[in-house]
Amino acid sequence: xxxxxIVIDGLQYSNWSREIFDQMRxxxxxxxxxTVAYHENTxxxxxxxxxxxxxxxxxxxxxxxxxxxxxxVTAKAEGRVGIIFGxxxxxxxxxxxxxxxxxxxxxxxxxxxxxxxxSLLGAGCYESEDGGITRFGRQVIREMNRVGMLIDMSHSxxxxxxxxxxxxxxxxxxxxxxxxxxxxxxxxxxxKVLDAVAQSEGLLGFSLYPFHLKNGPDCSLEDxxxxxxxxxxxxxxxxxxxxxxxxxxxxxxxxxxxxxxxxSKQMDYGEGSASDSGWPDALSWFQDNRDFKGIADALSRKGxxxxxxxxxxxxxxxxVLSRAATSSFxxxxxxxxx
Amino acid sequence: xxxxxIVIDGLQYSNWSREIFDQMRxxxxxxxxxTVAYHENTxxxxxxxxxxxxxxxxxxxxxxxxxxxxxxVTAKAEGRVGIIFGxxxxxxxxxxxxxxxxxxxxxxxxxxxxxxxxSLLGAGCYESEDGGITRFGRQVIREMNRVGMLIDMSHSxxxxxxxxxxxxxxxxxxxxxxxxxxxxxxxxxxxKVLDAVAQSEGLLGFSLYPFHLKNGPDCSLEDxxxxxxxxxxxxxxxxxxxxxxxxxxxxxxxxxxxxxxxxSKQMDYGEGSASDSGWPDALSWFQDNRDFKGIADALSRKGxxxxxxxxxxxxxxxxVLSRAATSSFxxxxxxxxx
Lengths: 338, 338
What we know:
Two copies of one chain form a homodimer.
Chain A: E1 8-12, H1 18-26, E2 31-37, H2 42-58, E3 63-65, H3 70-78, E4 81-87, H4 99-105, E5 108-112, H5 135-147, E6 150-152, H6 158-167, E7 172-174, H7 191-199, E8 203-206, H8 221-235, E9 240-242, H9 252-260, H10 292-302, H11 306-325
Parallel strand pairs in A: 1-2, 2-4, 3-4, 4-5, 5-6, 6-7, 7-8, 8-9
């Protein structure tokens, strides 16, 4: 890959280990958006952040925290991987508006307003009813805009997503999902949503989770590149990136936690089913972080030029994060003394 | 007061308002160490920090957060008052070592290991037994040293205090208390403790809480200056500062929360008593933040020169905070990129 590119993967939730961090470096990945909460409440989210602090201490030669987008550039210069914290749900803020700023200070740069189910803020993509953004949700969107936290609607229902985009004064992203055009999964996005995200100057991160792809685990790299090309045409080259949804080495129990949290006594299968309840088989061409180069090469063969590839592989992610983080909220001694 | 001085009050827990912040500015105070937790657990502490974020938003022309000691200098330059967060108890970290780093990132620069009672870390000053620093306590001291959080033993028992000083690799402070020599309150400190704090290159912040002073509310400004002069002689001019313990406009319910938290069904009276259970009358010469100038003037008459007064009024506080904060712990994008 071109050494000038900033390579960012817009969603991973792996069973973190030194081996995985090393694979990130070997794969030329400069930063990864990692999930710190699915259903965790405020207190539990702090434990997750504490676990990351332990990793920064133990594996500080390989990874570093990202508090501001500039830290991604620093990470690349240092030869470390920047870790961007995000939540896949609004559970970390519970019912308290001021916790958005508190969590932003702790480095939470991205938050989804809902995860599959109805939340206090809006509807998730598996609900049969979608009443749109709630009263609290509107307050939260305004506050996320203010403190520089990026709004992610990956697991949200359509009306809620469109209303969030409409109400937000900042770009809204889909960190990890694909166009429904290529697989009509509940988690994938309609053309209407794609157009609205593009209009907001947000971003769609292409998912490599097999259940989000045409032909599932049998999706070919060429199929994937076709999807990228189609979406680039529809949304614009500056509105797309990667959001692999890589969940490397995670046991079944973690998949069940993601899907069921503490909310159900019956098993929920997400995009899977009772007869296909486990992790899908990995794609042959994307097993771990070392495989990003193969994707870039295939996109190059598809006809994207070097500048366009730089945007897709991470440049667009850096731009949208930088734009969201432009805020007067004091997240450190430096940013406050302007 | 000399405009070159950095003026820092080492402990206040007032009923915060715009009026009080304005009095701080009028009094020439550049930074104040404010209490964010007495008995609050982790989750509740975040609510307290969220309340401060609201104040920074509403009264941002008067106050600013302090994440690093340099922010105090910035606050002075801006004509704002720097707010230094501290906890009077270890309740905010519950039983979790990694929460020290998490709270440090949120700006918690100072933490007491105990508040009056036995804690998970050591014994408080009202316990009849003092078994010293616990197993967890030793881990916490090491971690506070590592992340740059200052150890405060104001409300701790003697053996625990001496062991903390012995075990810590950084200076240990008493943010607000006085020498027992001047009033033998359980909250005041023996010569042995004063000497150990001085030896650790820590600091004693003189309390203006009447129950900590000779003659209580009738303590004269001259009595106070005598105490300062005696302590400067014993501990050294670089080891003393102010820690007023000002609790302006607080109702009786707050005093009871401080003393009783949730741990007792019987009323505990702290340094008061059943017949004297309320807030003590304020000193005639220290009613609010506008009275620091009078103290500096009296100390000047007592014979302290300008340089010495600068140290007492805040220079020593800035030095000890700066020393504690010297750490490799990444608290922001800037400090991490060294």
